Amino acid sequence: MGGTWYWNRYPEARFDSESYTYGYLFSKELFDDWEWQEHFAGQPEIERYLNHVVDRFDLRRHIQTGARVTSAVWDESSATWTTRAADGTEVRSQYLIAATGVLSLPFFPNVPGRETFKGESYHTGLWPSTPVDFTGKRVAVIGTGSSGVQLIPAIADDVASLTVYQRTPNWCTPLNNRPITPEEQADLRANFESIRHTLNTSQGGFLHTPHDRTAFDDSKEQRWAFFEKMWNSPGFSKLSSNYTDMMTNVAANEEWCEFMAEKIRGIVKDPETAEKLIPDHRYAQKRPPFVTGYYETFNNPKVSIVELKKTPIVQVTETGIETTAGLQEFDMIVWATGFDFGTGTLLRMGIRGKGGLPLREYWADGPITYLGLQCRNFPNFFFPGGPHGAAGNNPRYGGDQVEFITNAIVYVRDHGHDTIEVREAAEAEWNDMVNTTAAMSPFSEISYFYGTNIPGKPVRFLLNPAGRPKLLEMMAEVVANDYRAMELSRSSERATSTA
Ligand code: N01
To answer: For residue 333, how far is its CA from the centre of ligand 1 (angstroms)?
Structure first.
């Protein structure tokens, strides 16, 4: 159980959204009976929580694990999907809902010789459930995104040596995690309804209070005092509570970066190493990670960095990694090289819609969606948490989509229909919105949010750039207009029109 939170079980994998803002909100009883131990829970606690949810609502009997879907095909005459899994399972259903996630297909770069390595080899996103022992080993970590920078400090004390292969440094700021005190537990319980209200109506699905000033409303001294406050604030508040123009005003963003660069220089004792760790892009052009003791790790003499932009990897050999600077031998290589975001999994399940149209073909130039949860030519198929949906704290917008889908299915049933498919005009309107407002997002094409980390993938913005309020507004509009954005039909009508 747990999906992403099952597979990403590398040391120190943990939330960077507050635990109580990330968990389910549909049941006050569930909220009450699960006491998160930390503001940012670690993977073991998250996995326990998800198992608890499954048992509390008696869901286990509905779930079949280990069933890798190999095809899902729409049959127009019976208005059903037939889904097949590699274990031979075949299911016919009226609806197909792929809750397969945006970050669920681990990506291994196509480095020559990768599979010839004779030591231990892991991907952070496919971490084994049996213990991995780092003690006394020469370990290489490739990748310094959110996964790499969580793992690196966690293993540095145990290893004989740790070599970090860094292509692009990231702006890492402290997560500022701590245990939830008994008083805070009591407050959480007492304020469930107002917490839920804030989470359900806020821009990014966080409890953080937005700031009320732009950067240059303040003097430089006030700004740096505020940046210090941001540095010491929890997780994503560096984005959601920062100056209101932080993501739109280049000068403001650059000064925040200057502040963070000074922090890095203050923590990392070796000046050359510090410079290697300072990014040259603006804050949030790539999704920023949140860390505990990351920069401090580079003061450990066992830890070193290889800058891949200066000395790229030539090949992996049986014994190690060869860059243009030579071969270094290892006992273990950890690939923290990310995921095929947004569309990766959906395009690998053999999904075929009307007339046998493969989803791969319909999305050959990038995803085309409506509300990031449905697309034309694929009736009765929904993908909550898919491309074009994401805006902030994942479970919150994913929850919005799940509620929308549930209501849509009930509407279809209650009005005597059996299929639902988005109309061309509605789909076009949503896609135009995504493509024309993508530039409003702070994320740039150097981010995997554009798919640029995957060779050959179309470069398209894969999030919902207008944010959650727009998603909620458009969903409410669909309901208020009696689902006019959708084509609803009955099989009896289809049979008549075909005849
Ligand atoms: O993946 P990434 P991730 N040679 O794509 C490098 C969520 N998450 O697993 O930046 C060498 O961010 C790549 O380099 P570059 C979160 O949403 C959340 O770390 O492309 N290096 C980069 O450094 C996060 O954003 C948490 O130049 C190569 C790294 O690999 C998302 O998952 C924790 C390479 C990949 O970074 C993905 O994070 C962890 C190559 N050929 C993850 N190819 C929480 O805290 C890629 N890289 C909740």
So the answer is: 15
The per-residue pLDDT for range 444-461, each reduced to its tens digit, is 999 999 999 999 999 999
| DSSP notation for 101-140 | -SS-SB-----TTGGG--SEEEEGGG--SS----TT-EEE
C-alpha Rg value of the chain to the nearest Å = 24
Question: Residue of the nearest CA to atom 40 in ligand 1?
Answer: 109
Q: Ligand 1 mean position to 444 CA, how many Å?
A: 15
**Mean pLDDT score of the chain, rounded to an integer?**
96
Q: Is 29 helix (H, G, I), strand (E, B) or coil?
A: helix
The owner of tokens 């502040």 is 259
Choose the residue to mutate in 146, 165, 171 for probing ligand 1, maximizing ligand atoms within 8 Å of C-beta.
146
Quick check: helix, strand or coil at residue 453?
Answer: coil
Task: Find out whether the beta carbon of 145 lies less than 6 Å from any atom of ligand 1.
Answer: yes
221-260 per-position pLDDT tens digit: 999 999 999 999 999 999 999 999 999 999 999 999 999 9
Phi and psi, residue 215, nearest 5°: -55, -40
Per-residue confidence band for 499, with pLDDT thresholds at 50, 70 and 90: very low
Residue nearest atom 18 in ligand 1 by C-alpha distance: 146
State if residue 167 touches ligand 1 by the CB under 6 angstroms criterion: yes
| C-alpha separations of 247 from 184, 448, 485 in Å | 31, 18, 33
Contact by Cβ (8 Å): 347, 462: no
In sequence order, which residues have a C-beta less than 8 Å from that of residue 499 and are 6 or more positions away? none
Residue identified by tokens 């503001």 is 39
395 in contact with ligand 1, CB cutoff 6 A: no
**103 Cβ inside 6 Å of ligand 1:** yes
Ligand 1 contacts CB of residue 308 (under 6 A) = yes
Can you give the length of the chain in residues?
A: 499
CA of 284 to the centre of ligand 1 (A): 14
In short, whether 453's Cβ falls inside 6 Å of ligand 1 is yes
- Cβ–Cβ under 8 Å, residues 21 and 201: no
- pLDDT tens profile 121-141: 999 999 999 999 999 999 999
Nearest-atom number in ligand 1 for the CA of 313 is: 4
DSSP, collapsed to helix, strand or coil, labels residue 334 as strand
Q: What are 208's two structure tokens?
A: 């953080």
Question: 244: Cβ–Cβ under 8 A, 6 or more apart, which residues?
Answer: 210, 211, 212, 213, 214
Decide: 147 in ligand 1 pocket, CB within 6 A.
yes
**Is residue 174 helix, strand or coil?**
strand
Q: Which residue shows structure tokens 């896609």?
A: 431
Question: How many Å lie between the centroid of ligand 1 and the Cα of residue 18?
Answer: 21
Residue 32 has pLDDT above 60, yes or no: yes
Residue type, 447: S
Other C-beta atoms lying within 10 Å of the C-beta of residue 85 = 17
Other beta carbons within 10 angstroms of residue 258's beta carbon come to 12
This model's pTM is above 0.70: yes
Give the Å distance between the CA of 145 and the centre of ligand 1: 4
